[in-house]
Amino acid sequence: MKMCIVQTTCKDIQEAKTIAKILLDKKLAACIQISSIESLYIWNDELCEDKEKLLSIKTKKKNFKKIQREIKENHSYDLPEIISIDIENASKEYKNFIGENTK
Fold first, then answer.
1. Largest distance between two CA atoms of the chain
2. 8 Å CB contact between 5 and 87
3. What are the strands of the beta sheet with 31-43, ordered from one edge?
4. What predicted TM-score, i.e. pTM, was given to this entire model?
5. What distance in Å separates the CA atoms of residue 43 and residue 55, rounded to the nearest whole number?
6. Which residues, 6+ apart, have CB-to-CB distance to 14 below 8 Å?
7. Are the CB atoms for 71 and 26 separated by under 8 Å?
8. Which residues pair with 68 in a beta bridge?
9. How far is Cα of residue 88 from the mean position of the Cα atoms in its chain?
10. Which value, to the nearest 10 degrees, does the dihedral of the CA atoms of residues 71, 18, 37, 80 take?
11. How many Å apart are CA 47 and CA 7, to the nearest integer?
12. pLDDT of 1-54, one tens digit each?
């Protein structure tokens, strides 16, 4: 089973929890961590600084497109970050946890 971490950022904890709960309810993710971060980026040729929530979504790699669709449908940003990072190594027990808790 191939696994990955999908990352996205949200404007606030409410939006982050909404997206997390949707993904968990649909069994598209086994675990989602929400962290507080500060982001600096260029948008419309301007330097922006925002406090955001980072979601680290642990899942099977095959779920990426479905997760991407759910994030786009439930996100307030015009261009949400949606990236996938392959998990090369994980304990057998953690692989089993992801496998048992996702479609």
1. 46
2. yes
3. 31-43, 46-60, 3-10, 83-87
4. 0.95
5. 21
6. none
7. no
8. none
9. 18
10. 20
11. 22
12. 999 999 999 999 999 999 999 999 999 999 999 999 999 999 999 999 999 999
Match 């786009």 to its residue by tokens: 72
Q: What Å distances lie between residue 100 and 1, 19, 33, 65, 93, CA to CA?
A: 11, 21, 18, 20, 10
SS3 sequence, the chain?
A: CCEEEEEEEECCHHHHHHHHHHHHHCCCCCEEEEEEEEEEEEECCEEEEEEEEEEEEEEEHHHHHHHHHHHHHHCCCCCCCCEEEEECCCCHHHHHHHHHHCC
| Candidate CATH numbers 3.30.2380.10, 3.40.1190.20, 3.40.30.120, 3.30.70.120; the one for domain 3-52+60-101 | 3.30.70.120
Residue 29 in tokens: 């993710």
Position 4 scores a pLDDT of: 98
Region for 27 from its dihedrals, namely left if φ exceeds 0, alpha if ψ lies in -120 to 50, beta otherwise: left
- Written as one letter, the residue type at 5 is I
